[in-house]
What does this fold into?
Amino acid sequence: MKITDLEQEINKRKTFAIISHPDAGKTTLTEKILFLSGAIRSAGTVKSRKSEKFATSDWMEMEKQRGISITSSVMQFTYNNFNINILDTPGHQDFSEDTYRTLMAVDSVVMIIDAAKGVEAQTKKLFKVCSDRGIPIFTFVNKMDRQGRDPFELLEDIEEVLGIQSYPMNWPIGMGKSFQGVYDRILNKVHLYNEQKEHHSYNLNDDGLKGDKIKELIEPDELSDLQDTVSLLDEAGDSLDLDAIKEGKQTPVFFGSAITSFGIPAFMEHFLELAPEPQGRESDQGQISPSDPSFTGFVFKIQANMNPAHRDRIAFMRICSGKFSKGMEAWNDRTNKSFKLAQGQQFFAASRGNIDEAYPGDIIGLYDPGMYRIGDTLCGTKNTISYGELPQFPPEHFAKVRAKNAMKQKHFYKGVAQLSEEGAVQVYKTATMEETIIGVVGVLQFEVFENRLKSEYGVDLEILPLPHTCARWVSKEKPFKVESSNYQAHDQQGNPVIIFENDFSLRWFQNKNPDVQLNEKR
It folds into this structure.
């Protein structure tokens, strides 16, 4: 295959994640983009449980019941001749570990901010992950059809709290009940809004906001405010800096309303022009360009039982370079073993279909009989590279778990093993009693774990929450004594771990055993 052909495929692709604090409108925006692209016939909702139409990206039964995203989902479709890979991530902090890993697989991020609330706690955490990696960030200020904060306050919030320069690509005309639309500063267009969702766009002549055309469309008072504001932005505001956007130092800001679809077509028009195509990745062999003809990719997520009828397990892989072809031979850098990639799949949330080829930026699914782990690098040649391990976060909540029905032990252990390999929980076996302890980053994960063991493996669980707050891996197993209030255990790979009741017991152990090295991560 010619490099020019490969580069042509790369330039057609946009791979991005949508992040926000819970309830800011993340999944709703995803639905509207899918609807506008023609990928779905009607947009679902994450609010109404009585409705039979749920958000496409919320495919788990518990997601539909609770109206929240629990696991990251992938949707692939075409939009204006671009091949789009959207990763819809959980907003709830209890599932942040899944979100952090997903952010390793994207080239840009759309950050949604509630117009009434501004930058919220979870937004800050997710933004920091993006900022540390230098990921380009595009901001969509949502819910402008409701009363919210002054737009200048929101921009100030973004700049001061997140520490990133902002550039408003459009500017709202009114807000809440007086919301009339937005003015596109780049294209010199006005997009008008009404509650009947009959949205119209008008190109302004060379006179722009000073011409006669705009006077026919907007009330005099609103027009006067808009003229003054845009003049102020043009004269005193920052200029649009494409290099700063690419480096994640400036965020283009858009105002709109996801629930009514207002502002989304205009947002996508600019986003597809400004968002980067698939980018190069740093490996242990240096920077790998997506146009490198040698195939590489890495596994960033494993999901069991997406199709409960088949009890399957899928490894999600981001292609980084070269071309994927059905049936090709690949090598796993971790195991140094080769195998055929026979069943590549593309996703639309829980739905998926077989594919024959894929390119850098694409997210594909590989049938996993238990041979992959999160962080594995796959290569098309024996001379493998590694994109490094993905971050693993130390659990903060622990519980003993067991099957209520002893006859279900086999299903219990299978379910525990598979869900731990997904990264949803971390599993430990106590050194003496061989009891099973699970650790999670957020307490809501216990509920998800219990629900999935019941629905996917037919196991009713007994969960005993523990007061313990941290786990530490022991680098070298040396003779040491562990207080009775703590647990000495091993993780799924057999590595020695101590589960401490609190920070005091951790410090007490360190003082008593200065020669024993403890680590937060495996």
Remarks:
- The first strand starts at residue 13 and ends at 19.
